[in-house]
Design goal:
Elements (H helix, E strand, L loop, with lengths): L4 H9 L4 E7 L2 E7 L6 E6 L2 E6 L2 E6 L6 E5 L2 E5 L1
Antiparallel strand pairs: 1-2, 2-7, 3-4, 4-5, 6-7
């Protein structure tokens, strides 16, 4: 699993946004850090995730293989 393209594009345009991916024990974890001091919030409407990070908003379709989607300490975590 890769980060949603909307978040990849944002990271390419903004050096403060970092995306990391880890594969371990059959689980893939993608973490999106929106930058130091940026508060992030998550809403899920059906199969759409809406992330508000600072003054920016990102919407993306949640992939079918996602087992957990959460925000903690300003970072979005996507597990599959």
């Amino acid at each position: 699993m890769e980060a949603p393209s909307e978040l990849q594009s944002a990271a390419a345009d903004d050096e403060d946004i970092a995306i990391t991916r880890r594969d371990r024990g059959g689980e893939t974890v993608v973490v999106v850090d929106f930058g130091e001091g940026v508060d992030a919030q998550l809403d899920v409407l059906g199969d759409t995730a809406i992330v508000v990070a600072g003054e920016r908003q990102f919407e993306f379709e949640i992939p079918e293989d996602v087992s957990d989607l959460s925000v903690n300490d300003g970072m979005l975590t996507i597990r599959s």
